[in-house]
Design goal:
The protein has 213 residues and is an alpha/beta fold. Helix content is 40%, strand content 16%. Strands 1-2-3-4-5-6-7-8 form an eight-stranded parallel beta barrel, surrounded by six helices. Bound molecules: the ligand Cc1ncc(COP(=O)(O)OP(=O)(O)O)c(N)n1, the ligand Cc1nc(C(=O)O)sc1CCOP(=O)(O)O and magnesium ion. Keywords: Magnesium, Metal-binding, Thiamine biosynthesis, Transferase. Pathway: Cofactor biosynthesis; thiamine diphosphate biosynthesis; thiamine phosphate from 4-amino-2-methyl-5-diphosphomethylpyrimidine and 4-methyl-5-(2-phosphoethyl)-thiazole: step 1/1. Belongs to the thiamine-phosphate synthase family.
Length: 213
């Protein structure tokens, strides 16, 4: 995969915003997000056909702006609607199982909170590793203890050049420090989905991440 896709990696579900999710996504795409993940999870999340229809529309928007479209957890849905890949966590389908059933060019991201998980994800052939939570977050109900920039640095040391994206409680002011700590980009929900102007906010995130490219 192109490591630049991780620079500003936006994640959104319908319950992460008070605005229309498709509006928020298109604003974020106009602002220049480099990757997108549909994560429909938690209180009030859509299910069944409503979830599928939203995913199809989001994929259409991502195609329009030529941005990779990934789905969180739901490998069946990702296969059904021909997404560009999936993100799976430690409690989800394993990367080996995903590889067995997915197209060869799929992007597969795996979560890691510590060095052991990151080393295993690298061994298993993850295209990128989502490292977090870096800071505390209100967005994920079952988030683990934050690992901070030190935790990120330690993981970077272990995995060499494997693409990494930092996640969890990330705000604009954190981007520079996180890039210095060794991440290839930042993965963000609320700082973009709840921004008054998501497009402008993404531009600022991109500006910060780009300082390191
Ligand atoms: C880029 C990225 N990194 C980490 C995660 C978290 O995945 P997971 O641990 O499976 O938790 P849920 O998102 O499924 O609640 C992610 N989604 N994306
Ligand atoms: C989806 C997710 N995964 C995390 C992890 O640590 O693996 S933290 C998180 C939530 C990120 O949302 P926000 O940018 O609003 O904090
Ligand atoms: Mg998961």
């Amino acid at each position: 995969m192109n490591v630049k896709w991780l620079q500003v990696y936006f994640i959104l579900g319908s319950n992460n915003t008070d605005q229309a999710p498709l509006y928020v996504l298109e604003e974020a795409l106009k602002g220049g997000i480099t990757c997108f993940q549909f994560r429909e999870k938690g209180k009030g999340a859509l299910t069944g056909n409503a979830k599928k229809q939203l995913a199809i529309q989001m994929k259409g928007l991502c195609r329009k702006y030529q941005v990779p479209f990934l789905i969180n957890d739901d490998v069946d849905l990702a296969l059904e609607i021909a997404a560009d890949g999936v993100h799976v966590g430690q409690d989800d389908m394993s990367i080996g199982e995903v590889r067995e059933i997915c197209p060869p060019n799929w992007i597969i991201g795996v979560s890691a909170t510590n060095k052991d998980e990151a080393i295993q994800a690298k061994k298993d052939g993850a295209d990128y590793i989502g490292v977090g939570p870096i800071y505390s977050t209100n967005t994920k109900e079952d988030a683990k203890q934050p690992i901070g920039e030190k935790g990120l640095q330690a993981i970077r040391k272990e995995v060499g050049a494997t693409p990494l994206v930092a996640i969890g409680g990330i705000q604009l002011a954190d981007v520079n420090r996180l890039m210095q700590a060794g991440t290839d980009g930042v993965s963000v929900i609320s700082a973009i989905s709840q921004a008054v102007d998501p497009q402008k906010t993404v531009r600022k995130f991109l500006e910060q991440a780009n300082l390191h490219s």
